[in-house]
Automatic annotation (TrEMBL):
Listed Pfam families: TetR_N
Gene3D superfamilies according to UniProt: Tetracycline Repressor, domain 2 (1.10.357.10)
Region spans: Disordered: 179-200
Biased composition (Basic and acidic residues): 191-200
InterPro entries per record: Homeodomain-like_sf (IPR009057), HTH-type_TetR-like_transc_reg (IPR050109), HTH_TetR (IPR001647), Tet_transcr_reg_TetR-rel_C_sf (IPR036271)
Domain HTH tetR-type: 6-66
DNA-binding region: 29-48
Protein name: TetR/AcrR family transcriptional regulator
Keywords for the protein's UniProt record, in alphabetical order: DNA-binding
Origin superkingdom: Bacteria
PANTHER family: HTH-TYPE TRANSCRIPTIONAL REGULATOR PKSA, HTH-TYPE TRANSCRIPTIONAL REGULATOR RUTR
Length: 200
């Protein structure tokens, strides 16, 4: 790797990241990556050192890009900075069709990093989880006890992550969004059906 980053290296990193969003991580090969970004495998290896080093840098880029955008969403609190409102805002952002490639890439890297031999993906899940958690902890009202803020953020992120995975798997946005908005006092579908049966 050259001692200092070059404009060409930065340009290729951007192009490789765009390729990753479109094609994902599984089966990533330098030859088609180089062809798609207008360069050669030799140039990529020279600029980034190795395929694994390039993958690690691309994953770091993905994490930093997502965290930056999520921080902007959470900082725009408007009139309501409660955790429920923050979680809803985070969900609206991450579940939008425009964010689907980045969310899919995040989950792919997340799961690959949890395999027995994670290779260049090692540590991604833990780093991403900590960054997301820290965002929601910091976004809560001043004076919230740290342990309480962390517990609330952990539960909120578990909900968002689980529903995002459902959304990626099934592509049923209305059903998944309804699950995000449901409250404990909302009537369950079974009760509605029982009510309709008794009145018919």
């Amino acid at each position: 790797m050259p001692p200092t980053p070059s404009p060409r290296r930065t340009e290729l990193l951007d192009a490789c990241y765009a390729y990753l969003l479109d094609h994902g991580l599984t089966g990533l090969s330098l030859r088609p990556l180089a062809a798609a970004t207008g360069t050669s495998p030799r140039v990529l290896l020279y600029l980034f050192g190795s395929k694994d080093a390039l993958v690690r840098e691309l994953l770091a880029r993905a994490r930093h890009e997502q965290v930056r955008m999520m921080a902007e969403v959470l900082e725009d609190k408007g009139d309501d900075s409660g955790l429920e409102a923050l979680t809803d805002r985070l969900w609206d952002f991450l579940s939008s069709p425009a964010q689907r490639p980045m969310v899919r890439l995040t989950y792919e890297a997340f799961l690959l990093s949890l395999t027995r031999d994670p290779g260049p993906w090692a540590g991604f899940a833990g780093e991403a989880a900590r960054e997301w958690l820290d965002l929601l902890v910091r976004a809560q009202p001043p004076g919230t006890p740290p342990a309480v803020a962390e517990a609330r953020a952990t539960r909120a992120l578990a909900l968002v992550r689980g529903l995002l995975l459902d959304l990626l798997a099934c592509e049923e946005p209305e059903r998944v969004a309804a699950a995000m908005r449901v409250t404990d006092d909302s009537p369950s579908p079974s009760r509605k059906q029982d009510s309709q049966a008794h009145t018919s």
